[in-house]
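Quick start: what a row looks like.
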Amino acid sequence: MKLHEYYVSLRVYQKENEYMDSMRVTVQELSNVLCCTERNVKILLKRMAEENWLTWEPGRGRGNTSTLTFHKDMRTGLTEIFNQLLQNDDLTGAINLLKENLPEDIKNELHNMLDTHFGYQEKGQESVKDVLKIPMTRKLSTLDPAFVSVSTESHFARQIYDTLLQYDVKEQVFKPHLAHDYDISSDGCIITFYLRKGVMFHNGKTMTSKDVLYTFQRLKDQNANSPCQWQTALVIDVSCIGLYTIQFYLKRKTRMFLHFVSSISMAVQPEGGSKMTGTGPFAVKAYDDDVLVLEANGHYFKERAWLDQIEIWRIPENSKVELHYELPESQDEIKGEAVDLLQVGSNYIAFNLNKPAIVQNWHFRNAVYHLFDIQLMIQERENDKLIAATSLFPEKSLENPPEKKSLKQAAESLQVSGYKGEILKVSFFDMKYSNEDARWLKKRAEEIGLNLLLHPFPLPDYYKEEVTADSDMIIMGEMFEDNVVLAFINFFKHKASFVNRFLAGEEGEKVQRIVDLLMDEEDEEKQKQFMEEVEHFLYENRLVINSYHTYRKKNFPSSLKNVSMNTFGWADFRKLWIKPAIKTYF
């Protein structure tokens, strides 16, 4: 432990002794508090005295009480140490201090101090570094492209890894990336990619067709069990035609395979399995439970990122720090344009049709449909950032708002279903909004005699099917990427998706048949028709109940340039830059 951590332990012990700045205490007591020998206690107290933190007057004789006097009150002492930790850029130490059992008023003050430490900073003097620090209140699940399934992790993975092609949503065309060109055979069953030469992985290895082959084989490997393995089903064979040419042989003609090679799941990794190594604009400099540090790739094959470093710090869940922003807003700085973001995809309830339970009954599902009155929930929670959803697409939800619902309708459907009072398990992420949704639903359910058992689980358990296998219902959210057609297909095909996990029987088979037709369709209008058909089927059968879309509005300082938000709510880190203040001399 560092010296300041021992000092904090003493201040916490002081709290338990009614905040007395001067205490009578034995060395043995201090030994228990600081978890070290009596000899080390004396050394630590001497060092703290040298820092002018306290005065220690030892008692005479072994076992006699000594006098410990803190030079500053608890608030001042802790805030000064906390500020020093921030000044030294010791965020780990600062965050650990916040985890201590401190008085709430002091903890709130420290949280406010921590807030100012996030956002954009300049480091160094002779060689200035542009650093962006971002807070998160949860542990990252995985950044492995073959497994990443959460929007935030997907965004970070995009900074580390690259794909063969990139899909331009506005122009609806595939643009060269790691592959500088590609050919499609006349029958549409052979796709040949021509790789750029001289592209380097972060470990210094030059990328070749063997790395692309390794990436595909790893995704296809049954033992690896990637949730995106379904994307490889169309491929019969893959062949390396030299170091910089690779061919994929498909079962049938389909343009969707180009979407697959543009998705994060097929981002190219080096042969041999070097973890956290890609060709992307940022390389992983450090990664543990507390922090992810991304450093600009100086050998990037395209334009180098303007930011030099990005740090994503895990902070306590009860933190008052403003989350998920790119830069702090200065009151003295002119604000730039506001960026509006309406979630594509929605939060929803899905029923586990793998269980031989009451959820198999349409009338029961209809009862939950009427019970989950989203407009009423939004009104009661006074949350203007939520928009009631009737579709995965917000524009459709705005055109067709939810019908009027009531407890009476819910109670009538519940009675018709034959419900006998059994307890039903409802699973959801152990996060703020999900907890609020679940508690609201449970309270409403009690009014009609429906017994719900709430089962929150941590986000990293998302990939563990056994965690939710015995659930009757799931409260979940799906946020679509910019390529909404691929995102829609992924929603029903991805092994980690709860709609994929819970839909079963004839209903599940019908949905998969329509999604397969969508996957082979190239006409945009027909694609929309297939997606509407799926959504209508889910609605009519009460298989997925849409709840709400999330609306965000972000104001950025005028000095922040090239801000454009993706559907996940993040800006492209590679393009961000800060316009420096320039003094004018007359």
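That is the whole record. The two ends are 54 Å apart (CA to CA). The chain has 19 helices and 24 strands.
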